[in-house]
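REVIEWER CHECKLIST
Item 1: Sequence provided? yes
Item 2: Single chain? yes
Item 3: Sequence as submitted:
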Amino acid sequence: MEDELEPSLRPRTQIQGRILLLTICAAGIGGTFQFGYNLSIINAPTSHIQEFTNETWQARTGEPLPDHLILLMWSLIVSLYPLGGLFGALLAGPLAITLGRKKSLLVNNIFVVLAAILFGFSRKAGSFEMIMLGRLLVGVSAGVSMNIQPMYLGESAPKELRGAVAMSSAIFTALGIVMGQVVGLRELLGDPQAWPLLLASCLVPGVLQLASLPLVPESPRYLLIDCGDTEACLAALRRLRGSGNLARELEELEEERAACQGCRARRPWELFQHRALRRQVTSLVVLGSAMELCGNDLMYAYASSVFQKAGVPEAKVQYATIGTGSCELLMAIVSCVAVERMGRRVLLIGGYSLMACWGSIFTVALCLQSLFPWTLYLAVACIFASILSFGIGPGGLVPLSLCPFPWCLCLWGHLHWPVPS
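Item 4: Structure as written out by the authors:
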């Protein structure tokens, strides 16, 4: 009897798999992919934007900017991205409840469109302030999407696939980093005259999300718990799961809805006051802090200069840099397979331990480069080894902590989650 049912069930299962895959890709392309993409594309036009800033200032005042002020302006352009991310995280909680997960991701592309317009016309307008404002806006977009995307995917995926689906956020981040490095090649948009188009290319992932995300359903949990629409929730579940027995999942959502009734939104400081949640919040603090302090972004920052000093021709450094992003992407994919066999705790502890080891050797190698030139090759090896260790451990297993800790905590405080007494 089971053999007779299998052929008829197989097409239905394939359809649900395609819908889930489309949901993952549609949310990821404008979510953590956009975060990784905007994180890496700013590296290629560094010197071009600095020259533009100096020329613009000289045209306005008649005097060039001192080197330290050029560096200050450039640092401001770079740092406005994470600052915007913090603002976006503060906005993510209310948006997720008011508009829903899917609509929030769609509306979030407004920031991307505005930023792309500012980037694209900044040189014609002779305004480096437009670049600063654009970086702030794409940061806001990243802060919103990096909080709402994992929530949307976790609430849409079947229970048995939630772990693997949640880890897709890290894969899209690494993919965005690699694509940003590739697009920034001199043969593509890394030309000195094309840097406004390079920065404005963040519009492409946004348009892809606007075209694909409306084709997938809203989060069933949001439809039932936040909107109280049982029929819409059941319709979304049928699209995501098929026409099988959905009674058990719907019953679990109803129980969660009943538990949430009468509960107001909790603020971050209130979460620390509840003994039942103290351990979870502490775990979030530890994981988020470790993610931000592990130094993985510094490895990317030092990579180009270390490659040049190690003898890599300046024209080839960009290709070596792509190798660093490719390592993280490869390990993010590998971690999806390894996590079920080795467990999250082992990979996290192992990844951070290896990163500490490689980071220590990297520091010593840079300190001794004047005495022993061969230590630069050791530093190059440590860069790749550290990024590989990050990808197999923290990078793949803590996708929610890829953003600064306050982003996640502010989101927690705005959600209507019941806090046990």
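Item 5: Key structural point noted by reviewer: Residues 67-98 form the longest helix (32 residues).
Item 6: Recommendation: ____
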